[in-house]
Amino acid sequence: MGILISEHKKTSLTLCEEGGGEVYDDRLKVNKTVFEQLCASNIRIFKKHRGKKIYPYKKLIGEKKVDFEADYYIGVDWVIASQRYIYVEPKINVAIFDYFGKQAELDPAKEEEIDKLDNQAQKVLSTWDKIGPEVNYLAMLMDVMTDEQVSKECGDLVLIDWDAPNITINQQDDRLTPFLVVQFLQILRKIVLKGLKKSYYRVQENLSNRIKGKILISQHIKQNVLKNRHTKMSCEYQVFGEDNPENQFLKNVLRFSSKYVENNPTFFQQNDNTISELIDYCRPAFYQVSDLKDENQTRHAKYNPFFKEYKEAVRIGNFILKRFSYNISKTTNKLLETPPFWIDMPRLFEIYVYSQLIKANPKERNKILYQFSTYGNALDILITHTGYQCIIDAKYKLHYNHGVIHADIRQVAGYARLKKVRGSLEFSDNDDSNIDCLIIYPDIDGLENLTLENIKSKRQPISAYHKVWKLNVRIPCIG
Question: Of 91, 205, 369, 400, which one's alpha carbon is 20 to 30 angstroms from that of 301?
Fold first, then answer.
């Protein structure tokens, strides 16, 4: 039984003491046994960042209720092992955009106005019942994966627990498989563009009137000697070409992915043409590659540094095949079993902003630095272009609380005072100039073309701070 939540919305499970030990049909009411299990269960740790544990959602325990609140990660996980699960959908609460902008503008000294707006925001957001648009995270992922430099940052976007019991959900609620399919197809496109890897592989063949390689004695006796085929010889020899186990595996995963896209078009709405073009581009490259005979052949494969994409493609391909138990007919099922997983949307947004900056400023791509590290700190993006030097913090985690917003702003301003950052921008020790700081946040009607000229003209100053700006960037949405 699932608990559905989305951004800035709480779902409460209330203790209902009537009815003894029964489990109630209403998913918002639970008996005492389930309530105690909910209180005792631990939330999975998504990752650790600078020694701090990051959780994919929040759980608030009251006297007779348990509140669940999403925290910008989408996915599904058990809250009570093998009994109840939580499902976070990628819906945007559009009201947060307005309050983020208002709170950023308020002077920290105006405490009365701050408290008033905090209370108003909390009330509006907690009772917001409009269905917001859905973040088109697949479109974001496709943009990110098209650039080889940017795609290297995508390795830790998703956490999958293959050891936990699977969760049965509706096919239409599946967020993991489309994510993996898009990631796989984009990597496969790079492999095809470079050319399939050729290597030596073993071939077994029953040859006529000749011997090649080594004779398979046991096989030769069964196939030829006992059947009076005296002109035949069962041999094994090596061939150099594209029909190797790695390419056979990729062809098999491509077949699964193509079938999945064909049977589930609703997942890829607004992206269907791009996905179809990817599949059509990759498929001809595998015409000379035979079907996979043994999935385990790639388990001990050695990867050539020149074909470094193969290792990641095989890894994600294994995830896709595991999803359907290596059975292609399961791609049509209305119900499916999925392992617990979480997709890191704040991280995806950071990488998405980075990819849009590189795409819009191809000549300055070497001047746009991602995750610039210094003294245990990591800036999201540092622009070192002579015409525009700036520290950018990409904030997918929008807050309506004034104190949290301004703590984030002060953190970015603090980065601007680090000597390593100023040194990378060629500031001398005697130069007291301030570096521009820019807070970029998502919006459904924000800026699309992130050229440096557009950023400078469209950014808005945050009046309470010197040379600190904000800019809303459009993210792709469905609905």
Answer: 205
Distances (CA, A) of 102 to 121, 126, 248, 394, 399: 10, 18, 56, 18, 11
Half-sphere exposure of 403 (CA within 13 A, CB side): 4
CA–CA dist 83, 88 (Å, integer): 17
Within 10 angstroms of residue 361's Cβ, the number of other Cβ atoms is 20
> From CA 456, how far away is CA 472, in angstroms rounded?
13
CA 100 – CA 348 distance, rounded (Å):
20
Q: How are strands ordered across the β-sheet holding 158-160?
A: 2-5, 84-88, 73-80, 341-344, 158-160
- Tally of CB atoms within 10 A around 192: 19
Is the separation of the CB atoms in 119 and 97 below 8 Å? Answer: no
pLDDT tens-digit readout, 55-92:
888 888 888 888 888 878 888 898 888 788 888 887 76
Q: Which residues contact 242 (CB under 8 A, 6 or more apart)?
A: 196, 197, 198, 288, 289
Tokens of 406: 């301004």
| For the chain, percent of residues with pLDDT exceeding 70 | 80
85, 77 contact by CB (below 8 A): yes
Pull the structure tokens for residue 230.
């005296």
Query: 0.70 cut: is pTM over it?
Result: yes
180: closest CA among 157, 197, 146?
157
CA 182 to chain centre: 10
